[in-house]
Design goal:
With 553 residues, the protein is mainly beta. The strands form 7 sheets. It has a 26-stranded mixed beta sheet that branches. The termini are far apart.
């Protein structure tokens, strides 16, 4: 055998891990009483989402079809071979193909669901997994459909009235070692992998309106401080439509929206203006060691992703960073995770690249940040930051009070596009400014508490807005401000620059109490005619006024 295809030993004993996602919703039955003027509800029953992962334990000698099944949770499975070798005798080499015993998902609940299968929990040399393509095949011999496991999603209905058995779907997972796998994989072993099934509601049952009330229901997956970055990078498949539930722990700084070579990152790759692949980009760089490689751009997409703390969990995160624009050796973001290159030492055409961020519906819920959230996206036409929400989060960055923003979200709106930052029921303690934005036309901050800040509480700037000066819609309602002291007599509760015609302000029912020493409640550089505003019901600290009398209230 050619040495380049020498045997690779991988003991892939697959530890099956079952994730059961229980989603409660209300299905109601109404009874109308025509002899009275009232309406009664005779029963409210919560639906039940309940899945079980099973594996085949016996087969028909003639057809090869499974005849018996067992619960797979906590079991260790061995890949099948024609000669029935033991697990420690199964050796992997380029081109080999190994299948697990048939698996099936059983819908034991009473709700329609959709599910995905994820390869995760790799123990041993994770690098070896890069050389293995995982596929999933479902259906019988006459109706087989094979997918890359990262692209697989299927739907199941609940058991119908009168049916004896629960509905189930059978599938087979196969690993194929890439033929181009080289010597760098020799001697590596994977001692165990996890197979996780995530399920969520599917649009089938109808409520009083239609069957679309759970169209955006997210599947959930449990993560921890050791594996969260891998999930965010797409190592275990796409996180689109996923809720990542964070276990208790002190998390390092999270890099959000990293472009990686993983298919699950949903990254598009361009080199020299043409769509490309990670392998082709690496080769292009290798072919031009002295410069001259094609200009590289990576566009990372994420949609409908939620990061939330598990119930009763204490999750502290030492900051979150994301970047879009030109990346070079002068940036903190000094690694190319697609080409797998450190860029901190040299800046040339081989090293620089551009990254575009395309986000929609990104939510952070119930998290505590001890470092600031810093999201920057400059100078890239492929960037779209749409609808970012912080809900019931805490920010306490006292150690960096003179230099750190709790939330900083800057987008070059003249080139990139942005829309909607929403902050609800959050607690900001200490830091320079709590919420700083630029290039974000619509900002909503409601029901939150601000204390210990030394500059501004809320600071939506206008430098990078299209056709600046101007604003879209600024909504600040029902917030409490306390223990804020001025810095060089410039501190404010709400600070804006030159406000153009067409802006819409809603600033209502806010309260400033307890040691407020600021220059103004609301401050602007200039205020054009033609703005629309409702500033009312606010209880500012004694003597605190706006820089323009039109903004008092």
């Amino acid at each position: 055998m050619n040495n380049k295809r020498a045997t690779k030993r991988a003991l892939l004993t697959s530890v099956m891990a079952l994730v059961m996602c229980v989603v409660m919703l209300v299905g109601t039955t109404f009874a109308w009483f025509t002899d009275t003027a009232s309406t009664g509800v005779n029963k409210i029953q919560a639906g039940n989402l309940d899945i079980e992962l099973q594996y085949a334990t016996a087969w028909n000698d003639t057809t090869g079809e499974p005849t018996a099944w067992a619960d797979a949770e906590g079991q260790t499975l061995t890949f099948k071979t024609k000669d029935n070798r033991a697990a420690d005798k199964i050796l992997w080499e380029p081109g080999c193909r190994y299948e697990l015993p048939e698996l099936r998902i059983v819908n034991k609940g009473n709700l329609a669901l959709k599910y995905k299968v994820i390869i995760n929990g790799i123990e041993g040399d994770a690098k070896l997994n890069e050389a293995i393509d995982w596929t999933i095949t479902r259906g019988n011999e006459n109706d087989k459909l094979t997918n890359d496991i990262n692209e697989f999603e299927y739907k199941m209905l609940p058991k119908a009235a009168g049916e004896a058995d629960y509905p189930s779907q059978t599938f087979t997972i196969k690993g194929t070692m890439k033929e181009e796998a080289g010597n760098e994989y020799q001697g590596l072993s994977i001692d165990g992998i996890g197979i996780t099934v995530v399920a969520t509601q599917y649009t089938y049952e109808k409520d009083s309106i239609d069957d679309q009330y759970d169209a955006n229901a997210n599947a959930t997956i449990q993560v921890n401080k050791d594996n969260i970055q891998d999930y965010l990078d797409g190592k275990h498949g796409s996180i689109d439509g996923m809720t990542l539930v964070l276990a208790s722990g002190d998390y390092d700084k999270i890099e959000f929206g990293r472009a990686t070579a993983y298919a699950g990152s949903n990254t598009k790759y361009y080199c020299g203006g043409n769509e490309s692949t990670p392998d082709a980009i690496k080769q292009d760089i290798a072919d031009h060691p002295n410069g001259g490689a094609g200009n590289r751009e990576y566009v990372r997409s994420m949609s409908n992703v939620t990061l939330k703390a598990a119930d009763n969990a204490t999750v502290t995160i030492n900051g979150l960073v994301a970047f879009g624009g030109q990346v070079n050796s002068t940036k903190w973001y000094s690694r190319d995770f697609v080409a797998d290159r450190d860029m901190s030492a040299t800046e040339n055409n081989n090293i620089c690249y551009w990254i575009g961020q395309r986000w929609s519906n990104i939510t952070f819920e119930g998290l505590t940040f001890t470092g600031g959230v810093n999201i920057e996206a400059y100078g890239n036409k492929d960037t779209l930051i749409d609808n970012v929400k912080f809900d019931n989060c805490k920010f306490n960055i006292a150690n960096n009070a003179d230099a750190t923003y709790c939330i900083r979200l800057n987008v070059d709106g003249n080139i990139a596009k942005a829309n909607n930052l929403v902050v609800t029921k959050c607690d900001f303690a200490n830091g320079l400014t709590a919420v700083l934005t630029d290039g974000m036309p619509n900002v909503t901050v409601t029901g939150s508490t601000f204390s210990g800040l030394v500059r501004h509480a809320i600071n939506p700037m206008m430098n990078y807005l299209p056709k600046a000066p101007g604003y879209g819609k600024i909504t600040v309602t029902g917030n409490t401000f306390k223990n804020m002291s001025t810095k060089a007599d410039k501190g404010t509760i709400l600070r804006m620059g030159d406000v153009g015609a067409g802006a819409v302000f809603t600033i209502q029912n806010n309260t400033a109490t307890e040691d407020i020493t600021l220059a103004n409640s609301i401050k602007v550089n200039s205020l054009a005619d033609g703005i629309t505003y409702d500033i009312s019901g606010n209880n500012w600290a004694s003597g605190l006024t706006a820089s323009d009398s039109r903004l008092d209230g």
